[in-house]
């Protein structure tokens, strides 16, 4: 198959899955295809996102997979990708990066990762290079070690919050962000419960304070009114925001 999705003009984000915690009917959990500089990087690979990915990219064109943390809704499709990569495609050595405890879970699930996957642990502050793209990582405010990611091609910059509570901010990256994909799991009326996720209001306020250019909300829990999450985020952000919906594409 012809190699697709390598538009040289800036970064492009495609949403593969955006349901928070578990997939809603007909939806998929967290997964994002980031393309730029001629390479294809997959950020998170939650349940259902592997099927979405193949609407946009041949599996053999994945250059690297980056997993934010070990909660199942962010990586479990790696297990079935292993089957596709090994038996369906007869390949080895797919590059994967994630936290050490995500690796431990994956090793247990798959009875080992090599030679199908070439896994390298990542930690906060690490810098990765995938072709022309540079990725940096920041530990968020979540229940297990969780890495937000910043991706740049040198001209435009995209950031992904992964999962986080309100004690983390996009400002931790210390550089301007053109487009931020931020979790917004619930509405503001849940804030007092102290869960380590964000409301739409918190996501909007945090992105505003960080000077984010454009805000895309994701990880809304099934059963939560996504339109209401968007509205309270937009009010706090001070500008319209978008909801990440499967197969939506954003030019950065
Ligand atoms: Zn999580």
Most strands sheet = 7 strands, mixed
Q: How many individual helices?
A: 5
Identify low-pLDDT runs.
1-7
Q: Given the helix and strand composition, which structural class is it?
A: alpha/beta
Ligand kinds: zinc ion
The neighbouring-strand order within the major sheet is: 6-5-4-3-2-1-14
Let me know the average pLDDT: 96
The total count of strands amounts to: 14
Distance between the termini: 26 Å
Q: What is the rounded Rg?
A: 17 Å
> Strand percentage, roughly?
25-35%
Q: Portion of residues in helices?
A: 10-25%
- Molecular shape: globular
Series of secondary-structure elements, N-terminal to C-terminal: EEEHEHEHEEEEEEHEHEE
Describe this structure in words.
- The protein has a seven-stranded mixed beta sheet with strand order 6-5-4-3-2-1-14. It has a seven-stranded mixed beta sheet with strand order 7-8-9-10-11-12-13, with helices on one face.
- Helix 4 runs parallel beside helix 5.
- It is globular, with a radius of gyration of 17 Å.
- The longest helix is centred in the N-terminal third of the chain and has 12 residues.
- It has 252 residues and is α/β, with parallel strands linked by helices.
- It contains five helices and 14 strands.
- Helix 3 links the parallel strand 5 and strand 6.
- Bound molecules: zinc ion.
- Zinc ion binds next to loops.
